[in-house]
Amino acid sequence: MVNRNVETFIGCDGSYEESGIVLFGAPFDSTTSFRPGARFGSAAIRHESFGIETYSPYQDKDLTDIKVFDCGDLELCFGSPEAALNDIEEQTRGILNDGKLPIMLGGEHLVTLGAVRAVFEKYPKMHIIHFDAHADLRDDYLGANLSHACVIRRCHDLVGDGKIHQFCIRSGDREEFRFADSHTDMHKFDFDGLKELCEELSSDKLPVYLTIDLDCLDPSVFCGTGTPEAGGVNFTELLSAIIEVSRTEIVGADVNELAPMLDQSGASTAVACKVLRELILSINK
C-alpha cells in the first residue's frame, strides 16, 4: 500500500489514484567515495521546498494545476547496496504497473540502478539521458562493482551500446573515457548535441529515462554535494536542458547527490528544489 508522506514537496499533495506522477525518496549513500551526506538530500528537498513558489515563471506552469503524489522516503538498508537497490526496484515497478511516472529523489547516484532495472523491464527499448560531472563508468571502485562511481556502467550492462547519452561529463579515469568512446554517447563539458538527440528520440518515439546528478552544476551554483567538480553548467543551462528532454517520451526520472549539510547556507538545497519543480512541470503531460 502506498501512503501519502506527512511532509510533501510543495504542491505535490494529490491522491495516489488521481496523480500521474509519483515522487519517492531513496535516502542511501553507503557507497559514497568522498564526502557522505546524500542520504539526507530527499528529506531536505521536501522540507526546504516551502521556500519556493509552486509557480514557474520559466514555463508559466504551476504545481497546483497538476496532480503529483509524494509517498516519502523508502526505508533502505544502509549496509547492503543490493538490498537497497531491490527495494528501489520494487517501489519503481509498483508505480509503473499502476500506470504512473516515477520520479526518485536521491541519495547517491547508485540508487538510479534500482529504478532503471524496473523501467528497463517494462521498456526494453529505453534510452538513458545522463547529466553529471562524472562518467560513472568504472567497472569497479576499490573492488566493489556496486558503487556510485559504477552506476552508469551497471546501467550499460542492462541496456547495451548506443542507448546511454551522457552530458556535462568532465571527470573520470582514463579507462572510463575510453570505454565511453566505444559504448556510450558521451558529450563532455556541456549540453552540446542534446537538442539533436532529443529530436531523434522523439521522432522514433523511444522511451527515455532521465537521471540528473546535480553535480553537473558548477560548484559556484551547487556546492552541497559529495564530489564537487569545477567547470560545470549554470542553473539556466540545466533548466533549458531539462525542458529539451521533456519533449521526449520520458518514462522515469531521478534527481540525486544533494548533500545538504555540506552547504550551510542552504543555497544548494534551494537549487535542488527549483530543479525538481521545473522537472515535474516540464514532464507532466
Architecture overview:
The protein is of the alpha/beta class. The protein is built from eight helices and ten strands. The chain has a domain at 21-124 and 192-283: 3-Layer(aba) Sandwich (Arginase, Chain A), CATH 3.40.800. Helices cover 33% and strands 18% of the residues. It has an eight-stranded parallel sheet with strand order 4-1-5-10-9-6-7-8, with helices on both faces. A two-stranded antiparallel ribbon has the order 2-3. Helix 5 (174-183) links the parallel strand 7 (164-169) and strand 8 (185-188). Helix 1 (41-48) crosses helix 8 (267-283) and helix 2 (81-97) packs parallel to helix 3 (111-122).
Task: Please give a quick description of this structure.
With 285 residues, the protein is α/β, with parallel strands linked by helices. Helix content is 33%, strand content 18%.
Topology at a glance:
Elements: E1 21-26, H1 41-48, E2 55-56, E3 61-62, E4 68-73, H2 81-97, E5 101-106, H3 111-122, E6 127-131, H4 151-159, E7 164-169, H5 174-183, E8 185-188, H6 194-203, E9 207-213, H7 235-245, E10 249-256, H8 267-283
Parallel strand pairs: 1-4, 1-5, 5-10, 6-7, 6-9, 7-8, 9-10
Antiparallel strand pairs: 2-3
Helix pairs in contact: 1-8, 2-3, 3-4, 7-8
Series of secondary-structure elements, N-terminal to C-terminal: EHEEEHEHEHEHEHEHEH
Please state the second-level CATH architecture of the domain at 21-124 and 192-283.
Answer: 3-Layer(aba) Sandwich
What would the principal axes of the Cα set say about the shape?
globular
Helix content: 25-40%
Number of DSSP strand runs: 10
Proportion of beta-strand residues: 15-25%
Through-space gap between termini: 25 Å
Q: Which sheet architecture does the biggest sheet show?
A: 8 strands, parallel
Structural class: alpha/beta
Taking all Cα atoms into account, the compactness measure Rg is 17 Å
Uncertain segments are none
Q: Under CATH, the topology of the domain at 21-124 and 192-283 is which?
A: Arginase, Chain A
Level-1 CATH class name of the domain at 21-124 and 192-283: Alpha Beta
What is the CATH superfamily classification of the domain at 21-124 and 192-283?
Ureohydrolase domain
